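# step 3/5: fold
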Amino acid sequence: MKKNIHRIWGVGLVVVLAASLLFSAAPVSAGTLDWGTKTIPSSTGEVLTNDTEVVNFSVSADGTMYLVSGSDNYCYKSTNNGITWSQLSEDFETQPTFVAVAYDDADVLAVADATDVWISTNGGSTWGSLGRVYTTTSNVSAITDLAVSSDDGGKNYIGIAGQNTSTLADVWYFDRGASAPKWHSTRTDTGFDVSMVKSYAVEFSPNIASDKVMVAVAATTTNTTYQMYSLNTNTWNSPFGSGYPVALQNGSTAVAGTASAAIALSPEYLGSDDSMRVAYVGLNTGSTDDNAGVYRLKDDSDKAIKDDVNINSVTFDGTNLVAGATDDNKVYRSDNPLATDPDFSTTSSLKRPGTVGTTKVIVAWNGSDVVAGTSGIGSAFSVSRDNGKSFSDISFIDVSSTLENLGLVKDVAVSADGSVIYLLTSDNYSLSLYRNASSWERVLALGDDYTSDYIVRVAPEDADAVYVVKKASKTVYYSQEGGDTKWFTRTAKYNIGDMAVESAEVAYIGVDSAKTVSKTTNSGFTWGTAQDTGLTGGNINMVRSLGEDEVIIGSEQGYVAWSSDGNDSWDKVKTKLDSASYVQVTASGLDDGDYIYAATASADTLVQRWEIGQSGTGWKDLSAPSTDLTAYGIALADGVLYVQTTVNATVGSYTLRTLSPTTSEPSEGMWSTMYKSDQLFDATPQSLKVSEGSLWSVDSATAALYVYSDTLVSVGPTLLSPADGFTDNINRVSGYPYDIAFTWERPSKAKIYDLRVAQDSSFTETIYKATTSSTTDAEISEVASGTEFMPGTTYYWRVRVNIAGPVKSPWSETRTFTVGELPEAQAPVIIEQPPAPVIQVPPQAPITIQPPEIVLPAPQAVPEIVIPAPPAAPAPITPAYIWAIIIIGAILVIAVVVLIVRTRRPV
């Protein structure tokens, strides 16, 4: 029997609602479920620049760097080893050409132009002008070098080399921190070689607090000298022995015609100890001759250890010497510069700082790394992690005067786990390969071939094995170190249309304008004879490796072929796809029962499937949405099929995706569509690349790299409540099960969900369906009425993201709940009626009142009348009939109660 008691129902509803509040909200998963741009090199942080050179830079011991570009009036600062730079606020109103920082204090630095010097003691936040270098005896007309000393008892010296207004050599210094700081000309100090017409370089001893030494290089038209100066005695050369100044000689020939010079002192250099006076001088004579090169000075003994090359800069860390060229972007290095005849090596042409056309290399040590800056077309700020053997460009990369970005983005390649990205670009100065393992670096620059068409490929299981291929040519660049230290130039046996990489050693090329494939097993060093694939129609459009010895190709006219023995033999699908156009193809494998998936670059492209070993002769249409699309890429990852298509630049691109490409009954409803407006993902021959959980594509028209993180590819929403095995009780008032609140975590940025409840684990007997919309960042809930469920029954439930939500996800885990049994009917409670009570009133004896006998006494004389107080009245006596009435009333009340109980109907 049902009975509506609203108060009890209300309590039940409160319990359900209260229970739902006990589940804590889980954090939202990452991912936007949309094509988004990946951060690539840009002008932010001065990573890319337009016609900007690295004119000069300086590095402190803690890695803080300062740089002047020569293209504006500012100084730039980097605190992350040159990866990015910030422009300091001071406008010097002229282009600085020199910058120097105290090695032991990154806050003390100076900049200079041709005649004026500015100084900062707070890391460039504020500046003070030291003005034009002027003394009573010598005024500067041209500054050729700038140096800042380490701390010397609270003082820092700012030194400049150059020429005075009398066109004579001079070296000036400013004693910042002195009681009366001023510029001091050293030309008139004792020992200065007054025949010198110009000084070219100045440097302070790294141990200046101990030796008070400054060194310089000066020259006449016929000779060049290395000189030492005592800041303690204001004396040149004589305090350090009769061998000073040292006339630099190449053999016995005096060095003449110096155009510029650079000095590097040993970190242990100590001017007061002749055994520790080790210095290196780099000379640029303006024309390449025997006198140009690197000179080593052991005290007053000099030797040309590298000649015949103009040197712009030199740096020494105590073991390794690195020198930068003046006329090009070569770097020379020696790991034994103190040997009698040191060995020098030259940086590989493909791993130099900057690119072809780059000149004036400045080098410096930054900890264990060498950093370099260059000038000219394609210049850059670069880093070497192998003592100058190879450089990668990391900032101030000069892309062109007309572009504000990377230029044309040619191609992208990504490691299997997505941790390493290669981006191939072409600007007006060079074809460049950028790599991102933690930050972007340009690891290859081909400055003389930026207009050609290239592709980039990477080994699936080895992100360091990378190929850069010039299409329609035999040129291949290969690196087994991610382009970081070495590139090998390979020559294929045939012109290349496309390449597929199987491993670090094994790769295949589809021969350009042919139906043949050639293979290498030694990283492109040699190539085998091209094998005929037997394609029925059209030359090869694309080639893809599916694993060891497995390779598949798509033609330009709707045909597919494959090899499962490493190019020794080929099988083919004799039936043409429904569209005779450029084929994009992949496969789940190449054994019987595996599927080949293909799409074509026609305006009415179809996605089709072929089962290997089937007895039929036709391709199966997979019912992909028809939106006038053209396919440029295809990929199969973890059983999920993606097809990259485009319409035009106005409409944009669509990425089709299905979780069930093997379904026996394909339908348009099995496809999700991921749309990107205004972007053309149409790189050829393959526009779509995949890594673990992500898709990658490029749009050359916008110089951008796009990524889609498919966070719904392998798992569905996380279920929260009810818990697995939950029991839903029956509401005793309503007779129905209580309502159930199903809740789950919102995955990524999903918006629409499907909830299914069934009586079987395969969900063939679905009894409840719901589509729930929510854009909240918390848990999602759907309340199902208890009237949907039967007592004593076990149900199964699961959730997925709806196909429009914006893409379909797999189903979540399956949970169960059970509805409790109906309560058993209770037997009625029978209370027997007791017999009517017998009420008896005992008879009362008659009441007799005997009046007392009254005896009057004889009259007496009237006495004084005294009236006493009357005695207290006796207590009244309750009559017996009153008690009878009380007893009868009590008996009647008891009788009524019994009667009520007996006549009450059971519930």
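# step 4/5: annotate
The longest helix spans residues 880-903.
# step 5/5: archive (pending)
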